[in-house]
């Protein structure tokens, strides 16, 4: 019988010229690990005469990643951000996600770091760190 647990999910991320070997991300937030927003797959129009048409469109995939403040994974993102500032340019990420509970894997490419706080939010206790990446491509496949 299948499950829907996220506990056995695995996410590895690499950044061209900085982390050429993908690093396993860990220390996910208790309530949120990672999410990808839905994308518009078509542009549609209805003519004044009632003829309906649609066309394929491409959009980037917006992903939020949430880490416990105690996780070592945010350091990868802070290093990525600092590296880009040092070279005054953007570098692209690649990654893979495995979701054994549903028998699926996902290959991510052309990722751009879009949003990152410079430190964890501090309240009564340190809060989760959210990083945002926009991906050019996400391809799914069954786990072999």
Automatic annotation (TrEMBL):
Pfam families per UniProt: E217_Gp32
Domain of life: Bacteria
Protein name: Uncharacterized protein
């Amino acid at each position: 019988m299948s499950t829907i647990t996220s506990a056995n999910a695995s996410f590895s991320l690499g950044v061209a010229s900085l982390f050429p070997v993908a690093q396993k991300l860990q220390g996910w937030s208790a309530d949120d690990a990672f999410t990808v927003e839905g994308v518009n797959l078509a542009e549609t129009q209805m003519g004044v005469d009632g003829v309906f048409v649609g066309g394929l469109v491409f959009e980037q995939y917006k992903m939020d990643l949430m880490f416990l403040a105690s996780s070592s994974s945010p350091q990868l993102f802070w290093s990525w951000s600092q590296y880009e500032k040092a070279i005054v340019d953007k570098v692209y990420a690649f990654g893979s996600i495995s979701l054994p509970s549903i028998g699926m894997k996902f290959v991510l490419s052309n990722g751009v770091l879009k949003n990152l706080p410079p430190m964890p939010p501090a309240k009564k206790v340190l809060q989760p760190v959210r990083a945002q990446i926009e991906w050019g491509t996400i391809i799914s496949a069954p786990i072999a």
